[in-house]
Write a structure and sequence with these properties.
The protein is globular. Helices cover 41% and strands 15% of the residues. Helix 9 packs across helix 10 (183-196), helix 12 packs across helix 13 (275-287) and helix 13 packs across helix 14 (316-324). The chain contains 16 helices and 17 strands. It has two domains: 3-94 and 344-449, no CATH class; 146-335. The protein is α/β, with parallel strands linked by helices and 450 residues long. The model has no long low-confidence stretch (mean pLDDT 90).
Amino acid sequence: MGEAVERLTKLIDSDDRYNIPHADVHDVQIEAMNERFQERKDAIKLVGHRAAEAGISEVRSFEDIVPLLLPHTAYKSYPENWLREERWDRLSKWMDTVSTYRVPVDKVKDAADVDDWVTKLSDNGFFVSCSSGTTGKSAMLVASMKDMERVSKETIKAYSWGSGIKPAKDRRMFGTGAIASVPRNYYSSVGQREALQDPNYAPWEFPIPPLTVGAITKMVVLRKAMAEGTAKPSDIADFEATSAFRAKALEEGVERTADELIKARESKIHVGGLWANLYQIAKAVRDRGYSAKDFNPENSIYVGGGLKRAVLPDDYQEFVFDTFNIRPERNFQNYSMQELQSGMPKCQKGGRYHLPPWLVPLILDKSGDNLLPLDQTQEYEGRAAFFDLSLDGRWGGVISGDKVAIDFRPCACGHKGPTIRDNVQRYADLEGDDKIGCAGTVDAYVRGVA
């Protein structure tokens, strides 16, 4: 790790990490990105290819890093038939093109299925997280043990800053929905539990099996086959049976979780999950005659992932808060994405997401080809791209599918680092499609090498 990278990433332990003006770290961020580039240009095949194409041998400015950013679709660039045909050797070679460390193809190529492949990779120090793939093919993101340790630590640092709650192991933690069983989620949960969970109680696990990487990818592949009319009747029947089972388990889980929350109502409770399930559980609690007056006033909540296209009443957030007696300052919100490992916690007074100094904001035009001029006099909009200097197992530079409004002036909360407004939108939702200029050439290279 270079000196500039270490200088920025060690700020995870600083109470002022969100209070550093962009101008104060601008030059250090450029130096740190160049350190990462020099370390990784020969290690990560796709980055080396991008550098050769652009004729870049050194990063001297924010503009220099733009051609080296990877579109988020790069982590979806594997052919889906490799999943269907269980070509773990091919998938491993594909992953090797986006990994910092060499993927041990021979040690994982004989996996029984995708979950066994993921397990074998983790046994060898390669931790694969998989996105939900709600809008298409799932992204597969490789990370190292250093990344997992960092995630476990940073998640509670961001939570404590955004909520004002000091970790004291005095809360009863309640999971309120099924989560994807991927390493990033697991290690985030470990960090939160070690810091918050009252050791006199066991954390409540929502009573439904988590979605494994295999279950997620199988669902995505089948969904596409159904849309194309190529799915087998037996596969559709299996999918429908599994969906019916999970729907029934979900309904029962809501009722059981509501009962457990009522039993624990005098304790400090921390609930986490997605809004759709939280709303249904809150409704079940209300149906049993309980509301805010019955719950501890120091309860807290952490919601991630947005609505995920769930249709809820306009006052769904207030309904949940009022049910569990959660004051606004104990509502933690965080903006991030699977392609990053760093989060951007939302402050209470300004209601904006704050970037830590090791997460470099790079705001591009809609095509993702050009860096917009840095404007430190007003808020401006563009395509969000970032360089996460803390990433170890893969490249830190990514072009997202999000349209954001960023401001480099001090926030209303008083902190001086850059912030993003709480109105993040996906270009795919705004326009029905999202095309990033460099995505096609990146996909072609990755497939050719793999």
